[in-house]
Design goal:
Length: 465
């Protein structure tokens, strides 16, 4: 008898316990959930993330979605709240393919969608690891960015570039709305390399133009690459640049100051101040900033100035500061040495921060953006001693150092509370503040750069180390 009573109470409490655990609300029956995937086939690659996108829906409410790729150890369950019920959900889930997988492998992504009524459906998506994600590479031969076309010489604009793509090229396109250009070349056979070469005729009036170059590849999910080229068609040179790099040097690698922008201009008479850091320094004058072509002024076989990419360099015979005057129309130039008379900022490496200006010793550091360790606070510029510039022992007018750039940069070279300070404005001009122009932004590849601030030239040179 006691045994029966014990079993009765055991069953009662078991029933009571089970009832307490079943605390989920009961939902009525409903239709199966639905799923619409963004694509039935996804391309990935080792170490690369891919995205699973799908639209989930249920007439009553969604409970969960499970994402599985057993071979890649992926088993992810996303559970939805039921108060309130969720009838629709846009799935966007990223997953990185492990580095040890091969590019020839493929898998099935299994999606299981369950609603609150207990209905489930499955959907599979193909995953391939032979994806190709790089846009076609466009290499401009001519014109380069910022190219100057001198209309008084010729109004022809050759456009020449090479496109490369591993999966093959579908088409290339050249567009310029202002010139009515819209040339699209559709390629057969999906070549991996294609060269475009065509000459366009410009109007005789001076104007600035923007060429847009586009290329699309033949991959199953196409990649498109494009670039814009600014071209200046002019009857006279808007600027000249002094270049002291060997011909063939990539002039877009450095961040600031190479080649060097002119100092004064009157008509087509350009004046430069320049420091030759050694005897027999070789220089050229360029009509454009980013390349030696099409306008490169050097010496011809007779030792006269010539606009010729095959010209030889002008030689500055001895180390020191020069005033150089050049006219690209008359093809005349002069170079005369001079002794600077501007203030020498000596012993800046031994600076002292002090509220009393009379007891303060100058230092020069940097404030700005895109420079590791720097911000716009002059106290930061002081305490981050790695940002301090030092005197160049070989030239009292130059402050030198090294900075790590993290991307597009802007800068003011400064002492305590902006005294002294040189604001880096456009064209590498480091003007003594206060100045009328704001700081310029300079695109730069991340890396370590050598820094020279020439206080006599009021120019900064920030060059890749």
């Amino acid at each position: 008898m006691k045994k029966n009573v014990f079993l009765f109470f055991l069953a009662f409490f078991a029933l009571l316990f089970t009832g307490c655990q079943n605390n989920e609300a009961d939902f009525p029956s409903s239709d199966d959930p639905t799923i619409v995937v963004a694509t039935a086939e996804i391309y990935g690659a080792p170490t690369r993330k891919f995205e699973i996108k799908a639209a989930l829906a249920d007439d009553l409410g969604l409970k969960s979605v499970e994402i599985q790729i057993p071979e890649l150890s992926l088993d992810k369950v996303i559970t939805f709240a039921t108060d309130p019920l969720l009838e629709t959900y846009d799935l966007s889930y990223f997953f990185e393919v492990p580095a040890d997988r091969g590019t020839s492998e493929s898998f099935k992504i299994k999606l299981t969608i369950t609603d609150v009524s207990g209905n489930s459906i499955d959907k599979e998506i193909n995953l391939r690891l032979d994806g190709e994600f790089a846009a076609p590479a466009i290499s401009m031969i001519t014109p380069k960015e910022g190219a100057v076309i001198l209309l008084s010489t010729s109004n022809l604009m050759p456009v020449n570039f090479v496109v490369n793509d591993d999966s093959g090229i579908d088409y290339v396109q050249v567009q310029c709305a202002a010139l009515g250009i819209d040339d699209k070349v559709e390629l057969t056979g999906a070549p991996q390399t294609y060269t475009f070469n065509k000459t366009y005729t410009l109007p005789v009036t001076a104007a600035d133009y923007v060429l847009t170059i586009t290329a699309k590849d033949k991959f199953a999910i196409p990649n498109t690459g494009s670039l814009k080229i600014n071209v200046v068609a002019t009857n006279e040179y808007p600027a000249l640049y002094l270049c002291d790099q060997p011909k063939g040097t990539n002039l877009t690698t450095d961040a600031v100051g190479v080649p060097m922008y002119f100092h004064e201009k009157s008509g087509q008479d350009f004046e430069f101040k320049y420091y030759a850091d050694k005897d027999n320094k070789e220089i050229y004058f360029l009509g454009q900033e980013s390349d030696f072509a099409p306008h490169c002024f050097g010496l011809n076989a007779s030792g006269e100035l010539a606009d010729d990419v095959a010209s030889t360099p002008i030689i500055l015979p001895t180390k020191g500061y020069y005033v150089i005057k050049v006219n690209p129309n008359t093809l005349k130039y002069t170079a005369a040495k001079y002794t600077p008379s501007s203030k020498v900022w000596a012993d800046v490496a031994n600076g002292l921060w002090h509220d009393d200006a009379a007891l303060r010793k100058p230092f020069v550091s940097v404030c700005g953006g895109g420079i590791q360790g720097a911000d716009w606070d002059t106290w930061t510029a002081w305490v981050q001693t790695g940002l301090h510039l030092a005197n160049n022992p070989n030239n009292p007018y130059q402050l030198v150092g090294e900075y790590t750039l993290t991307g597009t940069m802007e800068a003011t070279f400064t002492g305590q509370w902006w005294s002294p300070s040189w604001r880096l404005i456009k064209n590498g001009i480091a003007t003594m503040s206060p100045g009328e122009n704001g700081n310029a932004k300079y695109p730069a590849a991340p890396g370590v750069y050598k820094v020279i601030v020439d206080t006599e030239l009021e120019r900064a040179f920030i060059t890749k180390k």
